[in-house]
Amino acid sequence: MAIPVLCGSLSKFASPLGAAMHNAAYRAQGLSWHYVPFEIDDLRAALDAMRTLGIRGLGISMPFKLEIMPLLDDVDPLAARIGAVNTVVNEGGRLFGHNTDWVGATRALEEQMAVSGKRILVLGAGGAARAVAFGVLERGARVSIANRTQAKATALAEEVGAEVVAWAERHDGPWDVVVNATSAGMSEVDPTAPFDVRQDDVMVMDIVYKPLDTELVRAARAAGATTIRGDRMLLHQAARQHELYTGRDAPLAAMDAALAI
Ligand code: ATR
């Protein structure tokens, strides 16, 4: 019988979604692996435990995505440029940091269309927006950034080589794709839509997944635009974690079904 392998997540407030997706993936592939979400305060001690116990992989949530970086043995170059690690892989006691959020965002878009050459407006300039902007630039998109606090948009755009669009002028495209990478639309933050959809030929992706049908997604759908909801990025970033942990392709259908429950 195979020795079980443990993976999990580190966060201040655990969510059941990662466990649902990853455990479904293990079941679908007949792996005797288990995923446990850990609620922690002491990140350094948790990483020591990862080494000591031989935990294979851990997902990292806010607020640990930034402070974890100097505690690791190595960080993937793009994760280092994004400035955030959301995944740690234990390679025989050496801890490697990755960022699967950017993979999740680009794969969610690429399910619908090729990203290269597209005019993409990214709303936001925080950690999530950085992952999205770096990801779509990596795939050859023409990226513009708009943020409520203009100075942060300017700083990010200069860093990545994107254009800045004034927050007040964000609605006036033409855009091929608009990605909401702000927290606007989250029920507990501000449920209003951060963008007025004025074109029916635009694709609108929201990375907010609480609720799944954000005001932005509803408005975009009503305007006849194609929409991508926040669960697609969530699914694809977890799929990339599965690939990194197990070395196998992710069983997407099984993971997707687990997310829908
Ligand atoms: P995350 O890591 O999830 O991106 P963050 O770094 O706190 O979180 O960034 C939150 C982003 O959402 C920021 O771009 C923020 O805009 P500001 O830089 O102006 O704060 C944006 N944001 C949050 N609430 C918003 C709202 N109600 N309307 C528009 N943008 C909002």
Trace the largest sheet across and list its strands.
2-1-3-5-6-4
Radius of gyration of CA atoms, rounded to a whole number: 18 Å
Strand composition percent:
15-25%
Residue share in helix: 25-40%
What pattern of helices and strands is seen along the backbone?
Answer: EHEHEHEHEEHEHEHEEEHEHH
Backbone structural class: alpha/beta
- Strand tally is 12
C-alpha end-to-end distance: 31 Å
Average of pLDDT: 96
**Annotation field: number of helices:** 10
Small molecules held by this entry: 2'-monophosphoadenosine-5'-diphosphate
Assign an overall shape. globular
| Major β-sheet profile | 6 strands, mixed
Pick out the low-confidence regions: none
Tell me the layout of helices and strands.
Elements: E1 5-11, H1 17-28, E2 33-39, H2 43-53, E3 57-60, H3 64-67, E4 74-75, H4 77-82, E5 87-91, E6 94-98, H5 101-110, E7 119-123, H6 127-138, E8 142-146, H7 150-160, E9 163-164, E10 177-180, E11 203-206, H8 215-222, E12 226-228, H9 230-246, H10 252-260
The chain binds 2'-monophosphoadenosine-5'-diphosphate.
Residues 124-129, 147-149, 152, 182-184, 189-190, 194 line the site of 2'-monophosphoadenosine-5'-diphosphate.
Folded structure, characterized:
- The protein has 261 residues and is α/β, with parallel strands linked by helices.
- The chain contains ten helices and twelve strands.
- Strands 2-1-3-5-6-4 form a six-stranded mixed β-sheet, with helices on both faces.
- α1 (17-28) links the parallel β1 (5-11) and β2 (33-39).
- α1 runs antiparallel to α10 (252-260), α5 packs across α9 (230-246) and α9 (230-246) crosses α10 (252-260).
- The longest helix is centred in the C-terminal third of the chain and has 17 residues, at 230-246.
- The two termini are 31 Å apart.
- 2'-monophosphoadenosine-5'-diphosphate (ATR) is lined by residues 124-129, 147-149, 152, 182-184, 189-190, 194.
